[in-house]
């Protein structure tokens, strides 16, 4: 047995006997006798080098002969004769490696985790049902079913998943099912739709309407807008270069509604009732034109920044039919390739970060909630009774009220003591859409025209689609269904009793920001603003201001770019925000107040080159100091009865430079008058103490950036035996290599489309979802070191030294 298998078994036994009773967050303990059964229990999960299965398999539902070729990294290369079979096999092979992941993530979206883990998941299930994820998935299925092609793809994929599920026995059941004591249920297109809504919530779920409303009431609109400008000054570096001309849009319908909250109006405190996705989920992508590459061919790059989980959020696959030859990263549970390339084009995505999620205050006529006020009339509501089944207990029924604004997610039935606060959610994800056809058509695309046609299907979550073709074109488009807003509409909680606050339509696709073959020789995005203030449509969102500037600066210096240069840039650890604020912090520090034991900290910070490399100490010193300083500036924003929004790092740096003696620097709750100088000094001493406390608490570890950052790949069950703790790598938040504690570059891809052998990729994990497999985490070392695998594109019946196993499929 390999070391991985032995380590897995030892740690698993320890987890079952010790860790699970203390901290297992997902479900109940299994019957240990069955779990340790040598014939059917967890021992069956320890795999050898070739876990791909039989050489020949007969599959009911397959239409023609086909094959799955597994390479030396366990990447399946699917060779089929038609659309039905290629998606059938994609579903089958993905389920064979990632079934539990598919099952759990879609249960989360559907609000059905309590069914398998009990009452501890009830609040999570209620939350996702009240956000309307299941409702949104139903709307998408209605839209998909109206398109014969999309319906065929979804149903074929589901058939394949179910064919694998139906082949399972107690012996071959994935480990997590044995551990948690339940079995998988049949797959359906609805579950694939739920997965896509799970991703939509992850990528559009972060908004701050509640906090904005509270903060503008506290500070006033002028101060609020100064701290949180829609378009910051000269540091703006949008996706579409500054100065680009835009077509004048159709004017909005006449109206003069003021969307700013009344500063003197007393309202009950607003507190956002749900958990939000990580605000810094994002991504990088760019494409360099052949005029700036050594080969004369374009190079496209993509690295989505998402949760760092095991199994990985991505699953590599090649799919081939007479009309299709595509390779890339797929989402387990959904058909097609999401980020990848074919013989002619390559594409990648980053989050658009534009706000498409608005909250409305609702006034019910009485406690029955059967009617609500709108334009002076009482309109009837609709009720959606959500039955939440709970393992080991009786079902809980939750009635969610729906209005023309969407579900009333927050009302007296959700949080006690809030009888008069009712908030409805208006969200583009609730509207029927068919994003599947975007990827179906991109997977088959041949040129720029095909790319533009393909992405027109994409509505939510809004994404920046980067494109490059073997013909030499590069382009980027921000694509999605974006609200055509009045100024400030959707920035704050809105009055739901008037039609004046309704959405008045959507920005037409033809006006979505896009650029092709720009003069500068590249296109790029990193979750920043799509445009400058000259864009004729009003919009707001949650934007990044550091990674994009670093990427563009580096690309501007490359005249003969190679794929190696692109890999280096994806792994770039330069800390731009530190370079912009640390000199100010050091200049404000009084040398006479530095204690002797602190001088080595100052020396290392002065000598630091601003790279957050794993072994460096200075990045950790800076980060601790900066966060203490940052929190001390905005301490009056904490502990307020109303939940407020604090400025982010970029806004804080901008405020400190533009208002070094700004009134907000002083904490008005204390008798002393704080200044930048006093806050810098106090936070520096606190940093020195924090470093010593960290060292005392971690005596076996060297203090450096990697250990302080503590990047962890966490299994979906949170079990330590299935996770990888304390990975030694660099990077960090707002750095191109955006590796944080539990999120970061989930897939790195570098491709020169149409050029044989010029496709590279890696992700932090492995193809298998089985913790006992050597292919569970075998990519991690490469990913940590910034290395890449050459992505193997096979032809039908090709003989290749990297082929590990071939499974022949017959109907």
Task: Describe this structure in a few short sentences.
With 811 residues, the chain is an alpha+beta fold.
Topology summary:
Layout: H1 3-23, H2 32-35, E1 56-58, E2 66-71, E3 76-79, H3 83-110, H4 114-117, H5 122-130, H6 133-144, H7 148-167, H8 175-180, H9 189-204, H10 209-219, H11 221-227, E4 282-288, E5 299-307, E6 309-310, E7 315-321, E8 324-330, E9 339-342, E10 345-351, E11 357-361, E12 371-374, E13 377-380, E14 382-388, E15 396-403, E16 406-410, E17 423-427, H12 436-444, H13 448-455, E18 463-469, E19 474-479, E20 494-495, E21 514-516, E22 522-525, H14 547-556, H15 563-570, H16 576-588, H17 599-607, H18 618-633, H19 649-658, H20 676-697, H21 705-709, E23 711-715, E24 724-727, E25 743-745, E26 748-751, E27 759-762, H22 780-784, E28 789-790, E29 803-810
Parallel strand pairs: 1-29, 3-7, 6-23, 11-20
Antiparallel strand pairs: 2-3, 2-29, 4-5, 4-22, 5-25, 5-26, 7-8, 8-9, 9-10, 10-18, 11-17, 12-13, 14-15, 15-16, 16-17, 18-19, 19-21, 23-24, 26-27, 27-28
Helix pairs in contact: 3-7, 3-9, 6-9, 10-11, 12-13, 18-20
Provide an overview of this structure.
Strand 7 (315-321) and strand 8 form a beta hairpin. The chain is globular and about 80 Å long. The strands form 5 sheets. It has an 11-stranded mixed sheet, with helices on one face. Strands 4, 5, 22, 25, 26, 27 and 28 form a 7-stranded antiparallel sheet that branches. Strands 14-15-16-17-11-20 form a 6-stranded mixed sheet, with helices on one face. The model is unreliable at 14-44 (pLDDT under 50). It has 22 helices and 29 strands.
